[in-house]
Amino acid sequence: MRATDAPAGLHRHDYATRDQLAEALAAGVSAKLAGGIATRGHASLAVSGGSTPKRFFEVLSKAGLDWSSVMVLLVDERLVPPDHERANAGLVRRHLMQNRAAEARFVPYVVDGHTPAECARLSQAAFEQDGHRLDACILGMGTDGHTASFFPGGDRLAEALDPEGDDKVLPIFAEGAGEPRLTLTLPPILDARFVALHIEGAEKRTTLETALGGTDVDAMPVRAVLHQTATPVHVFWAP
Ligand SMILES: O=C1O[C@H](COP(=O)(O)O)[C@@H](O)[C@H](O)[C@H]1O
Fold first, then answer.
1. Where does the record place the Glucosamine/galactosamine-6-phosphate isomerase domain (predicted)?
2. What domains, with CATH codes, occur in the chain?
3. Residue 48: CB within 6 Å of ligand 1?
């Protein structure tokens, strides 16, 4: 691991390989979850979808935790049927909810049978059922500068990024997103006890440097996470 200079509140962790990154991130998350279980009797984890987290999920799924005391949620979801190949819930079921982690309680978003607004309302109720604050929230990032489903041009981006907003889950639509989405809003993400941004590859490194080098949040919504100073954010990267 190599620590690099970063703005205050941003901690950068660079690894030589994606396997090393997966091991380190899984160890860090596992420690946070163990801490939650030890102090409160339960712990919660929100994870992202896409293609990047598979290796991390597979390592984390083998962690020696009391997984029956862990709730797993999604940072964001695509509004597609639950068995659709692009469903983030499917990725989590296939790669995280296995091995020891099969004992955890997975609470996916409500994605069908309702309007997007209703899906968001029902999903938020599930998110709030334990009245909890997330122990760990693992974000991803696209090369367009989106994180969670905060896409450039998102129709409800301002609401989703409002630090004073009351909604924890919102429906959101953006041309570049592929399909309508549900997303955690910025407040519950930044309220997590541990926030990580997990990115891999040279292209995403360039995207990260671009995001750090400018301040236009609408152009690159990940800046809302990177440039705030209230919550420490740990950036995990490997080539
Ligand atoms: O659409 C999404 O993309 C991002 C990044 O995905 P990746 O495939 O580039 O790793 C992901 O963080 C988000 O959860 C997902 O819905």
1. 17-229
2. 31-238 (3.40.50.1360)
3. yes
Classify the complex by whether its ipTM is higher than 0.85, answering yes or no.
yes
pLDDT score at 126: 78
Mean pLDDT split into 10-residue runs, the chain, 239 residues: 59 98 98 97 96 98 98 97 95 98 96 94 84 91 98 98 96 96 97 98 98 97 97 98
Give dist(CA 72, CA 13) in Å, integer: 24
Looking at residue 39, its pLDDT comes to 96
Q: Does the beta carbon of 33 lie inside 6 Å of ligand 1?
A: no
Reading the block at residue 123, the tokens are 């999903």
Answer whether 75 contacts ligand 1 (Cβ < 6 A): yes
CA torsion sign, 175 to 180 to 186 to 187? Answer: positive
At residue 70, the pLDDT reads 97
How many beta carbons lie within 10 A of that of residue 229, not counting itself?
Answer: 10
Helix (H) or strand (E) holding 172: strand 169-172
Give residue 145's pLDDT: 98
The pLDDT of residue 132 is 72
Nearest residue (by CA) to ligand 1, atom 1, is 50
Please count the helices (runs of H) and the strands (runs of E) in the chain: 8, 11
Q: How far does residue 143's CA lie from ligand 1's centre (Å)? A: 10
Are 136 and 193 a contacting pair, CB within 8 Å? yes
Residue 38 CA to ligand 1 center (angstroms) comes to 31
Does the beta carbon of 207 lie inside 6 Å of ligand 1?
A: no
Report the Cα 23 to chain-centroid distance in Å: 18
